[in-house]
Amino acid sequence: MYLSELVRALRAFLILGLLGYGASAAAVNHPLDSLTQDEYKSVVDILRKERRVDASAIFNYISLMPPEKAALADWTVGKPFPRKAIAIVGIKDRHYRAEVDLITGRLVSWLPASGQGPVVEAEMDLANAVAMKDARLIEAMKRRGLTDFSLLRCISLASGTFGTKDEESQRTFKTTCVTKRPGSSLEVPVEGVVATVDLRSRKVIDFVDTGVVPLAPDPWGHSQEQIEARFGKRAGGAHKTVMSQVGGPGYVLDGGHLQWDIWRLNFSTDERPGVMLNNVEVRDGGKWRHVLYEMYLSEVFVPYSDPSQGWYWRTYMDSGEYGFGASMTTLTPGVDCPPHATFVDSVGLNPDGTTVVRKATICVFERTDGDPAWRRLAEGRAATDLVIRYASSVGNYDYLVDYVFRQDGSIKTRIGAVGIDAIKGVAATDMESPTAQADTRFGTLIRPNVVAPNHTHFFNFRIDFDIDGASNSFMKMKMVPTKVDASANVPRKSIWTVAHEVPERELDAVTRMELAAPAALGIYNPNVKNALKQNPSYMLMPDGSAAHSLLDVNDGPVKRNAYVDNQFWVTPYRPNERYAGGTYAMQGTGDDTLKSWVSANRPIKNTDIVSWYTVAFHHIPRSEDWPVMPAHWVGFTLMPHNFFDHNPSINVAPTTPAGERAHDQH
Ligand SMILES: [Cu+2]
Fold first, then answer.
1. Domain 29-112 has what CATH class?
2. What pLDDT is attached to residue 25?
3. Is-catalytic flag, 218?
4. For residue 613, how far is its CA from the centre of ligand 1 (angstroms)?
5. How far is the CA of 421 from the centre of ligand 1 (A)?
């Protein structure tokens, strides 16, 4: 056994050992490590000891309070570090924000929160129970022949914000119901019935029944048994392509620290964004260089485009209202991630302040997609990527989120939307039905009696570049159509040139992507130069992931998510500006969000800046979305631009003459 194999075996033993031991025993080695179960418990214990909470309190959210960036600048492994947590707690009719020092075990502050905490499942259950006891709802179900409530499932969801007077004093949910059909694992909508529940008064404050709509009859499901019953076995049998890894992983995963090829970084989890990346550094020759201080998904906004009573309010903020981290689900080896992946657990918060270990919610793996990193005639190198993946199942959708590190110095962020379309019950059974045109005005008929309404998925990422240090600038490289001057004395009429623009202030940096007026977006360090005396930068390549919002900026849901009206924003770093849709998204009005911060028009040149980019796609549903939609991937790339002096993947180890990859080269 070679030494490197021994090291790998030891590593594998350590990784397996850590996983087996469970997250509660994880030690905190880095200031940005995820909160441990013990730390969650400390937060709750401190609040109890200080008599701020009793048994009725709801812990909506607990997170690490990110340490000041400056405080981490000089920190090295082994040195002590600050460790604080924030809790958002619901007590009777209001929410409080607590700041707790985990080192001293003391409550630092306890103040009324300036908004509402995120929704927890127990609240949705409570709203369901309130609605299902309402005589009007019971009567409405009876009119539809639904008397067996064991077949009925009601779902209470955030009601959105529309600027009505009562909203501020209420915590409102819209409750609609679905029902099982015989022989099916899928549920169909009971359309037209909406109860509005205020959780503070625990009353149904509004009730709508717009009339009986036939229930979809066709029992569908996506269990193997149900699929096989419908289709039999797929022709061609099992596919024979598998992904495997010889000799164990080429990365080292130590707690939240990950090192692979030319990359090293920290990652942690939080109930709101899910996985967060920190201190992403890339090796350039013998030197580690900073690229990102932090990157994570800051908000997910999915407004539906159907104005009916049952649908107008479906303007979900999947991260701010429900928590993308809180919605992380277990990944299956060989399905969600390759079998050779390392699966990592995460800690989740229960509303009573206890915690749960969510098994295998993150996977880390190397992969090759069979593509070359580069080639030139007979010479070439195969590419390997490193992927960090998690899946959040929020409502009907499952979202996969990937951070992909590449040997060419680029980082790809990808989101895969999969799961089940949100569905609406209609009378039409096909497009020749008398009501078909009216029924499909706002969506597509995807099964008999089932329409999937149109909607848009917006994903905002907060990207804190620190390229070779914190002081960075934003540069737009505008591509300008240019006439060829007659003095050039050539028959060519037109070319394009690049006009560099460095915005001084926030409002100058707000960028709307336009195909007819293209601009490359770069973050650079004006204080550092490469060998060619250029400033090192990274460019954000949208890779087709930008989509323009088609909604009115004065529409309530859009006011709360005003960042969607432009794709790219730059702000000066502020520790408390972390989520584009605001800290308190639930029933927020948008007055403390990315757009409102930017209105201060602060300087952004040669200072610590943060970039915000919104990935989006408009979804016109199709019959192929049923019963589970194929994964729809969108994403963007952070690409080095004059950062390295050469192609960083040039010295990737060659493939052996037998076509196998070299395995022992780090
Ligand atoms: Cu969709």
1. alpha beta
2. 44
3. no
4. 19
5. 6
The arithmetic mean of pLDDT across residues 53-73, rounded, is 93
Using the mean position of ligand 1's atoms as its centre, give its distance from the Cα of residue 418 in Å: 8
Cα–Cα distance measured from residue 138 to residue 141, given in angstroms and rounded to the nearest whole number: 5
Query: What is the helix (H) or strand (E) element at residue 419, kind and residue range?
Result: strand 411-419
The per-residue pLDDT for range 424-446, each reduced to its tens digit, is 999 999 999 999 999 999 999 99
Catalytic residue among 304, 397, 538, 563: 397
Specify the CATH number of the domain 251-641.
Answer: 2.70.98.20
Give residue 174 CA to ligand 1 midpoint distance, Å: 20
CA-atom Rg of the chain in angstroms: 26
- Give residue 81 CA to ligand 1 midpoint distance, Å: 43
Expressed in angstroms and rounded, the spacing between residue 455 Cα and the centre of ligand 1 is 6
Tell me the CATH number of domain 121-231, given options 3.40.50.1100, 3.30.160.100, 3.90.1150.10, 3.10.450.40. 3.10.450.40
Percent pLDDT > 90 in the chain is 83
What is the pLDDT confidence band of residue 523, given thresholds at 50, 70 and 90? very high
Which residues touch 470 (CB under 8 Å, ≥6 apart)? 69, 293, 573, 608
CA 441–ligand 1 middle distance (angstroms) = 17
Spatial distance between the Cα atoms of 610 and 572, rounded to a whole number of angstroms: 6
Residues of the chain with CATH 3.10.450.40: 29-112, 121-231
| Distance in Å, CA 398 to ligand 1 centroid | 10
Distance CA 342, CA 220 (A): 34
Look over the chain and give the mean of its residue pLDDT values, rounded to a whole number.
Answer: 92
Tell me the C-alpha distance between 190 and 71, whole Å. Answer: 54
Please name which of 621, 631, 626, 630 lies closest in space to residue 216, comparing C-alpha atoms: 626
pLDDT confidence bin for 21, thresholds 50/70/90: very low
Choice among 270, 306, 318, 466 that is catalytic: 318
Q: Note the pTM of the prediction, 2 decimals.
A: 0.94
**Residue 539 to residue 520: CA distance in whole angstroms:** 7
Q: What is the dihedral of CA 7, 9, 13, 14, to 10 degrees?
A: 20
Is 592 marked active-site?
no
For tokens 């000891």, the residue is: 49
Determine the distance from the C-alpha atom of residue 641 to the mean position of all C-alpha atoms in its chain, rounded to a whole number. Answer: 26
Q: 């930008």: which residue's tokens? A: 546
Could you tell me the two tokens for 215? 């229930």
